[in-house]
Amino acid sequence: KNPLGMIDAFERAFGSDRRGHLLLVGDGSLRAASERRAAELSASARVHFLGIQTEIADLLAASDIFALASHWEGTPLAVMEAMTAGLPVAATAVGGVPELVSDGETGLLVPAGDMNALAAALSRLAGDKGTRVALANAAIERSGRFSVDAMVAEYAALFERLAGGH
User: Fold this and answer.
1) How high is the pLDDT of residue 150?
2) 76, 96 in Cβ contact below 8 A?
3) Among 11, 60, 71, 89, fewest CB within 10 Å belongs to which?
4) What is the pLDDT of residues 11-66, one digit of tens each?
5) DSSP letter, residue 86
């Protein structure tokens, strides 16, 4: 994960724009360093450390964009939840993220570690409601692939193919 990079990308994208707020959910060994870094920035009052949360759906519903600055990922449930909630995603193209997010279709992908590119993606989404809405709508449609029903249907089809259609 990369909360320090996320904070830096947020500062680059929203430093003087009072409308932007960064909600950081979770906790861990980088929290203290992240809080120190945020305190150094002009946007420090708009970086919110929420810690561990259980009402993720409410936080997603209150958001306009979902951002992920990870150095590594498996297949992040957080991205699937954001897409299901109808949020465009701005994320680093690591691990399974590109399997979930189609760049320019359901979100914007940037190279791992490139916080300038992530800042540009955040700025683009924040400044262009039409793009944000189009990506969000496509994200909702694509998120249907992540449902339990879709997974069961894919496993059933796989088992039928392996059994020779019998």
Assistant:
1) 67
2) yes
3) 71
4) 999 987 888 999 999 999 999 999 999 999 877 889 999 999 999 999 999 999 99
5) T
Contacts of 109 (CB under 8 A, 6+ apart): 91, 92, 93, 97, 98, 101, 103
Which burial class, exposed, middle or buried, applies to 93 when counting CB atoms under 10 A from its CB (0-12, 13-18, 19+)?
middle
Rounded distance between C-alpha atoms, residue 59 and residue 28, angstroms: 19
Helix 115-127 × helix 3-14 angle, to 10°: 50
| CA proximity to 97, closest of 116, 62, 64, 121 | 121
∠ CA 71-72-77, nearest 5°, is 120
Residue 99 and residue 79: Cα distance in Å, rounded?
Answer: 11
Q: How many CB atoms lie within 10 A of CB 91?
A: 27
Structure tokens at 151: 């997974």
- 24: which strand partners? 49
Write the single-letter amino acid at 64.
D
pLDDT per residue as tens digits for the range 133-156 = 999 999 999 988 876 676 777 778
